[in-house]
């Protein structure tokens, strides 16, 4: 009897559907840069992680502009990363998603 490999599932922050991890795009917030006293010097950058290997907090979204827009409107990334996200970062994510298609 061959043991079937378990497929990791993740929830899309846009549509809320559970899908195989490979079908989704990871949006990652890099760790904050802190000084020796633990004070935050600079916030971690938010970017698309097409390899799935970047360090930091991740949230997943379908490789679909519609799902990204839903997640943006509902402020789901801001909740996931517990930080305010400027619009230009969302614009950059949209551009990267368009190029990745």
Provide a quick synopsis of the model.
Helix content is about 30%, strand content about 25%. The chain has about 100 residues and is of the alpha+beta class.
What does this structure look like?
The chain is an alpha+beta fold and 101 residues long. The protein has a single domain, classed as YlxR-like (Hypothetical Cytosolic Protein, Chain: A, 2-Layer Sandwich). It is 29% helix and 27% strand. The chain contains 3 helices and 7 strands; from the N terminus they run E-E-E-E-E-E-E-H-H-H. The chain has helices at 65-73, 76-81, 87-100, and strands at residues 9-11, 18-20, 24-29, 33-34, 40-42, 46-49, 57-62. A hairpin with a 6-residue loop joins strand 1 and strand 2. The protein is globular. The protein starts with 8 loop residues before the first strand and ends with a helix.
């Amino acid at each position: 009897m061959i043991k079937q490999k378990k497929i990791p599932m993740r929830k899309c922050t846009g549509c809320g559907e559970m899908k195989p991890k490979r079908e989704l795009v990871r949006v990652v917030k890099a760790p904050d840069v802190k000084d020796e006293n633990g004070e935050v010097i600079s916030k971690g950058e938010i970017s698309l992680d097409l390899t799935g290997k970047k360090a930091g907090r991740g949230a997943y979204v379908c490789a679909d502009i519609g799902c990204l827009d839903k997640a943006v409107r509902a402020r789901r990334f801001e909740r996931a990363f517990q930080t305010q996200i400027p619009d230009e970062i969302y614009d950059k994510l949209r551009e990267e998603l368009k190029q990745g298609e």
